[in-house]
Amino acid sequence: ARTFEHVISPILERYDVDGEDRAFVVAFRMSGLMAAVDEWMRGGCRESHYDQSHDLYFDYTYTTDATYSK
Fold first, then answer.
1. Do 32 and 57 form a contact (C-beta atoms < 8 A)?
2. Residues whose CB is less than 8 angstroms from the CB of residue 50 and which lie 6 or more positions away in sequence, other chains included
3. Contact in structure between 66 and 15 (CB atoms under 8 Å)
């Protein structure tokens, strides 16, 4: 709870994520991250699978203008 309040919430505020949406955004991002790690592990933890998982995760979750789209 303290990490969310003191670290994550201020970052999301900087990116104009509404207060009531922040917990959902964090849960969504963590689920995506864990899915990427799971796929990497299923691929035998090879560097090429890590790179692919990393690229897909960041290519499809970040926007170029450093804001979240709704």
1. yes
2. 40
3. yes
